[in-house]
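[retry 2/3] RING-type domain-containing protein: previous attempt timed out, resubmitting with same input.
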Amino acid sequence: MELQILFKYPLLLPKNHNLNEFEGYINVQGGDYKIHVQRVNGQITLLHSDFDAPHWGNKYSDMVQYLDALYNDIAAKTTPTKSKNDSEHYRHVLSEYLEFREFYINVKECRLSPDLTAITMKIADEGGRVQSLKISVNTNFNIIEHSLPDKKELLTSYTSLTALYEKFLQAIEELQPYFYIMESLDTAWVLDPEVPTPKDNYRRIAIDHNVSLIVTVNPWMCNDIPQLQFMGPERLVDDYHFRISSNLSNWDLQGNIIDELVKLLEMETFPVKQVEADETALYNTGDCCICFSLRLNGNLPEINCKNPSCEQFFHTDCLYQWLVSVGTKTKRCFNEVNGECPNCEKHISCPIP
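[retry 2/3] RING-type domain-containing protein: success.
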């Protein structure tokens, strides 16, 4: 009964959980008419209305039948108006939602907000990963939040909820190779991000003492060679750059990304993090030399001193604040500042955050 009333008269809301009292508006021929109805002792009573209501006595005991009769009575006494009819919009939303729920029974979770302005979903892909989706409902259906890597095409406006969902499923299917690649990278010692999400298309992997590798994958062209960036002392990183330049032509686009990276870097395997290991066990000088912590706002130290006798690490924010505070010894050049290392007082540069 509640579903029928919601579908036929979406501006009429229940007053209690027993569903024996409703108040709101019914839209008839473009006009909204306020009513307040209640079922008492099995009979429907009209407590309030802003029109000349019919007197039916105890003729009706079914709420839906009573509302239908009331609708027909008003329609017979009124002429159509050209006022805005929100009921048609709500009826369209409910129709799309009910049709969608009936057809896509395998959706893990699907909820329509009480005000009919948003739909949230959770979908399990072929790998068992749960993907989330939030849709705004206005004139059309629009994706406003999702768990996938960003893509402009996903933000298109849709007139049909089914069409939107099919487009989202297509994107999930297209991203399956990307998900498997990132899961493969997660078998290594991942330093960053701490808790990867599908949107995080990079992994910072430990590869040597005080040296890490940032691997960035294009989610929508994941068979391409990923972007590689080393973090660590220059004297140690230079050797890895040489290995890459020597072996890059042997990269197998169809191979496992971990195996290809190991061959590219001429390593036997990547270090594997122990269950109870501390991140600083391998990077015993990896903490920021200013704040003495490994992470700042979730970020690892990004800058290290190039002086071979120092090679201390710094968060960008920490080093920038330090260099700005000393003032007279710091010079700004375009989008970076140059000054003295807080540890060894040799030259060091820092991008402006």
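[retry 2/3] RING-type domain-containing protein: The radius of gyration is 32 Å.
[retry 2/3] clearing retry counter.
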